[in-house]
Amino acid sequence: xxxxxxxxxxxxxxxxxxxxxxxxxxxxxxxxxxxxxxxxxxxxxxxxxxxxxxxxxxxxxxxxxxxxxxxxxxxxxxxxxxxxxxxxxxxxxxxxxxxxxxxxxxxxxxxxxxxxxxxxxxxxxxxxxxxxxxxxxxxxxxxxxxxxxxxxxxxxxxxxxxxxxxxxxxxxxxxxxxxxxxxxxxxxxxxxxxxxxxxxxxxxxxxxxxxxxxxxxxxxxxxxxxxxxxxxxxxxxxxxxxxxxxxxxxxxxxxxxxxxxxxxxxxxxxxxxxxxxxxxxxxxxxxxxxxxxxxxxxxxxxxxxxxxxxxxxxxxxxxxxxxxxxxxxxxxxxxxxxxxxxxxxxxxxxxxxxxxxxxxxxxxxxxxxxxxxxxxxxxxxxxxxxxxxxxxxxxxxxxxxxxxxxxxxxxxxxxxxxxxxxxxxxxxxxxxxxxxxxxxxxxxxxxxxxxxxxxxxxxxxxxxxxxxxxxxxx
Length: 474
Fold this sequence. Notes:
Glycosyltransferase; 6% strand
């Protein structure tokens, strides 16, 4: 395994670095808030250290305001609560009813979901009308997300991407949170002739399709079937619902692995395993897609766990010694870097960019998966994944990845957006993009830091479904 895992790390040992993350984070959130004009659209990624927009889909605004809410959670500074709450009310309503994207779990769980969670945890005052407002937004969001549905040949289906009904994206594994919250709030999607459609059932069916078609298990599916490899996009024939081929929008090719997509799978499956563990057997068993799996609900959890472990193992085999991956494991100029996996990543190399945002997402997923396995008394593999995640976090919480310059609006440096489209800024004298940030990378660095901060302080575990757990009693 190329990655050099530090088995001595603990969340407590990272507290000083975590404090530095949130110290730097505060000024960067305020800089964006002060200088960003909402009429320009949503901030997406930086160019020369300043956030810019990029019209494609509106999938990052929730990260902008959600970052302020994470900052409040970590520091107790009410200025950031005020920003997150006010901007959610002012600007996020259209995201709740947005029928054109697969990103509800990004936009709305990061804003309305965090606000509801903070209230449920007693970190902001209880207000019944405000709580009902957040809950209604989350119910509608989950149903709108679930309505983007393509039925496939086995009678099941998936939430289709913004590319169209033929397209299953790996990214959506983490956006499934919107369906989970809607279900736990007692909501359903109402269809034709008043059909009541279970959000949990659609969550499980989508995750099942992702596990079957977007993730490889080394069983000879095609000539490039390496266990844990992921396809960014899976293409289906809409005439008969059959799977046709892998594809990639943001990776190098359909037969290489775009590492941010890999990271979405690691974190998405790990979080959904946590969520399923909170459900009663009756609730879960009634949502199993029996046409493709055993009626035993345990088969669903086994499939999710297999997908989570396969993708995690592939990540550990294909990242650098310090846990940072290149943007794609088959990028065309990697051979020019020599034995690059045996060394710490070099974000300033002249051949291919790293993607720190993939690392931030994957780190949280690895730790969550490790904790999940440890709770099942599988301590060997649990320790491996947990310590690997902590090792990645330790790398990201310091330079050259932590952005310490006061003039740079980003928090996590060396993030990549869309390499094939050439959207990432390349500075004069450089041959590959580096030194820039993304809204999702910054958000997930803050979320990773908050997750570990709460664990180090023995506080309640940070989870997206904390918003639907019972109220904290004083």
